[in-house]
Design goal:
This is PUL domain-containing protein. By secondary structure, this protein is mostly helical. The protein contains 14 helices and 4 strands. It has 2 domains: about 30-155; about 190-270, no CATH class. The chain is elongated and about 65 Å long.
């Protein structure tokens, strides 16, 4: 069994173990008939090979209740659900479920609030979003610019995605930091219209400059330098901020050949 399959099974079998005793994560008395059906739909999708067509209208309603109902459902429940969704995100037809969320924005509103969630939930929602970049349709969905109002603020898919990426990139938690470097890499590598990056290129680049002060590993440096190399190309403001604020990418020369190549690309745009 692969790690992904193990995670999926652990996240959908509805129980956890303490001292060898199985304890239900989702007691049936707390779920309506529709919600129990939603759990079964997720099980069919992840473990029985059914397509995303198996998700009915009740599924995202169920997800929304798990996210919102802090009294009935613990952090463990939300983490298991998000881990299951992170595995689902690797499937090509997950876009069908994402399109069902165009009205209520259950998934992206939860992501927008990442800084309000416990660390375990932060890691799980960030992993879900990172995994969505596995397929083109889902990754394009993450960068949609259509706006809606949430808690008195205007947001969009790309703004929520950016907030998660920046939050993780500047976190002290090693797991969040690792996911953050992957997210900014994935965002920058998408081939989209330049206008998509207009609002977020500077924000992410400022976070990257702050991240560079944290003594990143070679792998993290490669991911983030690749992102910065893209942003200095698409935004005329980013090279100016790199020049004014620093650190200059040349300070990281010598980490590896692939990182040096990216630094050379960036340096051509900076005085």
């Amino acid at each position: 069994m692969s790690d992904t399959e193990a995670d999926a099974q652990a996240s959908t079998n509805g129980s956890t173990t303490t001292n060898g005793t199985a304890q239900p994560l989702l007691p049936s008395q707390k779920l309506s008939e529709d919600e129990q059906e939603a759990v079964d739909q997720l099980h069919q999708y992840l473990l029985l090979g059914e397509g995303a067509w198996t998700f009915g209208d009740c599924f995202l309603v169920f997800v929304g209740r798990i996210f919102r109902d802090q009294e009935c459902f613990s952090t463990d429940v939300r983490v298991h659900l998000l881990r299951a969704l992170a595995n689902a995100a690797l499937k090509e037809d997950i876009i069908l479920l994402l399109h069902q969320d165009r009205k209520e924005h259950v998934l992206m509103n939860f992501a927008q609030d990442i800084d309000r969630h416990p660390p375990e939930e932060q890691q799980s929602i960030a992993l879900f979003m990172c995994n969505l970049f596995e397929n083109n349709n889902a990754s394009e969905w993450l960068l949609y610019i259509s706006e809606w109002n949430y808690n008195g603020l205007t947001t969009s898919n790309i703004r929520a995605t950016t907030k998660v990426a920046v939050h993780c990139l500047l976190a002290t938690c090693p797991r969040l930091l690792d996911i953050g470097t992957a997210l900014v890499h994935n965002i920058a590598c998408k081939e989209v219209k330049t206008v998509v990056f207009d609002d977020v290129a500077v924000e992410i680049s400022m976070a990257l400059l702050q991240f560079f002060n944290s003594s990143p590993t070679e792998e993290h440096l490669f991911r983030t330098m690749k992102a910065l190399a893209k942003f200095v190309q698409v935004s005329p403001d980013v090279p100016q901020f790199v020049q004014m604020i620093g650190p200059h990418p040349k300070n990281f020369k010598g980490k590896s050949e692939r990182v040096d190549g990216l630094i050379d690309q960036i340096s051509k745009k900076i005085r």
